[in-house]
Amino acid sequence: QIQLVESGGDSVQAGGSLRLSCAVSGYTYSRYRLGWFRQTPGHEREEREGLASIGSDGTTRYADSVKGRFTISHDGAEKTLYLQMNNLKPDDNAMYYCASHGFPSWVKAPSLTSLSSADFSNWGQGTQVTVSS
Fold first, then answer.
1. Torsion-angle region of residue 42: left (phi > 0), alpha (psi -120 to 50) or beta?
2. How far apart are CA 41 and CA 31, in angstroms?
3. Does residue 97 contact residue 22 with C-beta atoms inside 8 Å?
């Protein structure tokens, strides 16, 4: 069973930095996509904003809202996904989630990155990020 556990959320002032971590266990597929999303109050799970995604081939994709400020990375040996967040803004206040989706061998040429929550099947419980002005 795949499990994802986020950590690293905290309260910081605008302009500060945080690094979120996501421990991933139970993975069986060699091809997969990983991603970071965030959700603000009043929005449903399906409306989570995709921030960054990384594939098992190392390709990455970023939302315009975080491009140049956030960096996604994956340490396969430690089985940990990271999101380095710099120059944080009050608009970044949200619950942050990591997500994953694996591809069995019979799936041909899957897209290994995505910013759509519908393209991920496994989710963590979230970690809160609060940015004060």
1. left
2. 33
3. no
Q: Which two tokens stand for residue 53?
A: 């995604």
The H-or-E segment that residue 4 falls in is strand 3-7
Give the model's pLDDT for residue 37. Answer: 98
**What is the three-state SS of 77-115?**
CCCEEEEEECCCCHHHCEEEEEEEEEECCCCCCCCCCCC
pLDDT band at 28 (very low <50, low <70, confident <90, very high): confident
What's CA 7's distance to the chain center, in Å? 12
Are 33 and 54 contacting, i.e. CB atoms less than 8 angstroms apart?
yes
